[in-house]
Protein: histidine kinase
Organism: Thermoflexibacter ruber
Amino acid sequence: MRLPLSFILILFFPFITKAQLPILISGQEKVIDLNGKSMYYFEDKSKMLQIEQVSSANFQQNFQSFSSPILNLGTAEYPTWIKIVINLQTEQDYYLQIDNPYLDSVFFYFPNQSGAYQVKITGKRLPVETEDIASTHCILAIPKLLFHQEQVFYLKFVSRRYMQVEARIINKQNIINSISQRYVIELAYFGVIVLAVIYNLFVYFSVKDASFLYYVIYTFLVGINIFNTRGFLTLLFPNYRELIAQYSFFISSLFILFAIIFTMHFLKVRQYSIFWFRALLFLLGISILRTFLTYIGYGQFLFSSGIIFLMSNLAVFIAVGIVVYRKGYKPALFYLISWGTFAFFIFWGALAYTGVLPFYSFSKYLSPLGTALETIFASLALADKINVLKNQNIELIRTQKELLEKEVRRRTKQLEESKKAIETQNEELYQQQEELKIINENLEEKNQEIEAQNEELGQQKKELERINYELEKANSELIKKETLIREQNAELAQKQVKMIAQNERLFKQKQEIEVLKNNLEELITQRTKELQQTLDDLTKQNQDLSQFSFIISHNLRAPVARILGLLNIFNEGRYDDEENKQIISLLRKTTADLDTVIRDLTQIISICNDLNKTKEKIYLPEIIEHEVFALKSEIEQSKAMIDTKQLEIKELFSIKSYVQSIIHNLISNAIKYKSQKREPIICIKSCLSDNFVCLAIKDNGLGIDLSNVDVYKIFGLYQRMHDHVEGKGMGLFLVKTQIESLGGKVEIESQLDVGTTFYVYFPNETSFKTTA
């Protein structure tokens, strides 16, 4: 209605149009606000007008005044011409500021001394060098060509979004103050966006809930969109103005995608209403399609319907929030407040920008204000969801505690049954030992009988030798009487043959008895060693099981008892009570202690299960160098010196991970228990000792008074000799357990305030190279 009316007035009442009053600039003015009385406008619907036509006398009647302080033409469909009359009476520098970040092109026409018009072209789609003062808006220097006379200036504005003209003339001394005031307001908004992104990103990494991540992405994209539409992107990245302008509509279309995804996840829409879940999926599909069309170049075409689409989404968000809140999901309340506030300010701003409502100076801040308030209330909604997750975690902890108690009872029962089975095996072994003793006694009796038989055979042999001698003597006598006693000699010869055969049989029997005796002794010795080894293994297992039983009864039951005690004093009537928060904190710490004990037990049990690991050839200097690098920060902090010059044995055949763990724990202990009186020196040696490779690690630390300490306690689980140093008492226990599982041993020498030496003996299972 406004344009046709203006056209009729121009046709029928050309003579009643008042002449445009000039703007007098004397040099005393700081800021001159321009309004409908000092500016006239004309919409170029033909998009073909040139300065020669616009500046002609016949065309002046087409310019119109406006009553509001700000010219608002809504969505920019046509170029807009502005006419300003200025009377410049000073040589001070003045600037014309157009407060509109959406101006793609600005043509500033000004007369020269001959009256011909010159043009200066600038805008957000043109290089930054075209601007007199780089800013998020358009700032033009007023030419100082003519003084003390009226000059008619024309401006032609081209925009792909909105056409609002809020203009003022500012002297050079006040231009910075004018820009900074606007920047403070806009940067405060961006500060809210940045804080919301950082806060919700931190919460996401804490609770691992995808809703927080989607909201962070949505908030970031909204901030980037406002950052772009307020002109900051083109200001900060002037070399990419054309690219930013090309994808400006694409940037504006992204945030609604993640707003829909955030709504679906935060409100659990699929759980509460399948109808609204499908509606959101439909909107998500349309949003993806609009984003794609915007990306390929249809952003200007879709821009006019963007507000309608956004308001449709907000209406659906609010409806979904109401449905979910009525079904009992409490975080939806803040969600409704958030999007309701956002929708109110966005709707108000849309009506102002499109010209339905009056456009004031503050109207350009309605969208950022609505976004900031929406961000604050949405963050509150997410914080409320954290409380819901917290209650769920408390319920989960209670369930896990019950499961853990059941598992502890089941495991305790299994250990008791295993203990009874071991006791039964011990009784059987004792009976087998008694039987072996009886067998050994019988074998000794048989050995005595065999020795008696051997003595008897020896006597018989001596008797045979004597008889042979007598026979030979008698034979010599019989030779002389050979003719007389041939028959007697023949009989005697037969007896001699029989005696020889009997001797041979007795000799063979003796050899067989000797072989049987030797084999029997070897079998007895081997069986005795096997039984002794079995007895030692069972004794060690019995000790380990006793130790595990002690750990379970003390180290596991203690945290469980604390958890039960804390739950008994937990006030279920007030979950947000400060005392309850302290109880929950103590529950977390106690649960962490329980987890640490279970991990320690798992690590100890894994040593027994890892005995089947493949042994390999290990180069000791390389292992020591690796562990020294792993402890680099502790060594540098303590200023420790590592001496490895006395490695006589450099190769070892064993399990690599065990050797690494043993060396790591012993070097770490030497650093932990260093003396405050001197810098630590750690000497690592290796040599052959009997059938072992001895690795010695010596330090000059605090030392231990071994006369007052049980050596078993030093290598015991959770045993510590110095309480002023942090630790769990696991290191030396692992060293002893690992070396004994390899078939070796560990020994200690220590003197109080002098130092400690640990000797670790590895079985010598291969040949080694020694130093020259």
